[in-house]
Amino acid sequence: MRAGIHQRIAAIGAAACVVLASGAAGGTSGGAASAAVPTTRTAPTQQSTVVVRGLAFPEGRAMRLGLVGCDDVYERVAESPQAMIGTGPGSAPAGERVLRYDLVGGNALGPLSYVSSVALTQSAGLTAYAEQGTTGVVWAGYQEPADRRTGRVWFGRAEVVVPAGRWTRIEATDLTYSWSKWDMYAQAPVVDQEGDEGADDAAEATVEETVPDGTLADMVVRHRGDGAGFVMTGLGCDGNEFAIDALRLHTAGTATTYDIEGLETSVGMPAPPVRRAEAGQPVELRGTLADGTGAPLSGVTMRLESRAVGATGWKLERVVDVVDGAAVARVQPERATSYRWRFVDRPMAEGSVSAAVTIEAASGASGSPSASPSPSPSGGADPTPSPSPTKSAEPTKSASPTKSAQPSTSPSPTKSAEPTKSAEPTRSAEPNTSPSTSPSATTPPVDPT
């Protein structure tokens, strides 16, 4: 795989990968602070699968990629994660491809979902694989009714482990978290004043606001009301490579699975300058290659394929580099031939094929050489350099018994019997080389390539 697809995936990934912001603050609009707390989980009213092409997640807050610190949500190690999309290991949990990362260690990367109702969030997480195993962290957020329309949100932290060599499902709603309150606008913990008037240092008179460990559902019950929140499941804290797929969010009656697949591509074939050319005449063919958003791709190759009209099956003409979404090739069809461009399916991108274009090959150039020797098939003489044989070779007139019987018009038998001039074997032999060399000299050369 060349750099072009990698660069495009990286560009999309950079836009999709975010750090926790104030997205959970504000919560649901309207409604009383003491909203009813669901006591049982109900079946989703809608289940769907969203195919994510090259990290192009749908617009909105339901699903994106997040990069956070493993110990402190806002303290990350400096790095630029590089996404890798491919097949395996084994069967992908959803579709055919999975998303891989190899972090430096100290950060966690994975799906980040903002929800308007923590109480109605029944499932959030992913399926992961790590050849050597890996560690991660799940950050959860819950905003209690009293803090609505502020930046204060409860952050919960839970450590997770992916065993080596097998696909493992991580479900965030089943985990028990250590909770502390944070101000998402200030990106700092919320502290309570101890009221120690004798303290010399104000920092010594503060303590971080915490509550006992518990699940997301426990927080809803403990604070007597529903609220907005988020779930962020990240892996790679130990720096081991990992793969993820089948990202899932089930909230507010809708269950959605996000299937990571290759970049979607589109191949086009603009109309050629001519649709009919003399046999063997060069014709320029152009192709275009873009991703699903219409952005041109570079650093890859496309195949130009051909098929003679009336034949079955396509054959490879040549492999052409794609630069800024464009490929160019010249062909020299000897007969009517159809052409098309193909981008071959690969791990990080889906394959695609253009519509076919047919070039008609005219036979005018190949027919003109054979017309030259046709007037004299018996002797093969070229009438242009040797006009004399045509005058002496009038057997029909001289063979007429009525005209030949007139001795007065032909008193000298020697003149009428000049065999040496009419036969001239040496001169009539000269054109023998002309018919054999003429076709090869005027027939357009065939490009061996």
Topology:
Layout: H1 3-16, E1 17-18, E2 46-53, E3 64-69, E4 84-87, E5 97-101, E6 107-115, E7 121-129, E8 134-142, E9 152-162, E10 168-171, E11 177-183, E12 188-189, E13 191-193, E14 206-208, E15 210-214, H2 216-222, E16 229-235, E17 242-251, E18 254-261, E19 265-268, E20 276-278, E21 283-291, E22 300-308, E23 315-322, E24 326-331, E25 337-343, E26 352-353, E27 357-362, H3 364-367, H4 388-392, H5 395-398, H6 401-404, H7 413-416, H8 419-423, H9 425-428, H10 433-442
Parallel strand pairs: 1-3, 2-18, 20-27
Antiparallel strand pairs: 3-6, 4-5, 5-17, 6-16, 7-10, 7-17, 8-9, 8-16, 9-11, 11-12, 11-15, 13-14, 17-18, 19-21, 21-24, 22-23, 22-25, 25-26, 25-27
Biased composition (Low complexity): 361-383, 433-449
Biased composition (Polar residues): 390-432
Region (Disordered): 361-449
- Counting helices, strands and paired strands, the structural category is mainly beta
Largest sheet: 9 strands, mixed
What share of the residues does DSSP label as strand, in percent? Answer: 35-45%
Spans of at least 5 consecutive residues whose pLDDT stays below 50 are: 27-41, 195-199, 365-449
Average pLDDT, all residues? 78
Number of strands: 27
End-to-end Cα distance, whole Å, is 26 Å
Rg estimate, integer Å: 41 Å
Outline, from the CA principal axes?
elongated
- Count of helical segments? 10
Question: What's the number of structural domains?
Answer: 2
| Fraction of residues in H or I helices | 10-25%
Biased composition (Low complexity): 361-383, 433-449
Region (Disordered): 361-449
Biased composition (Polar residues): 390-432
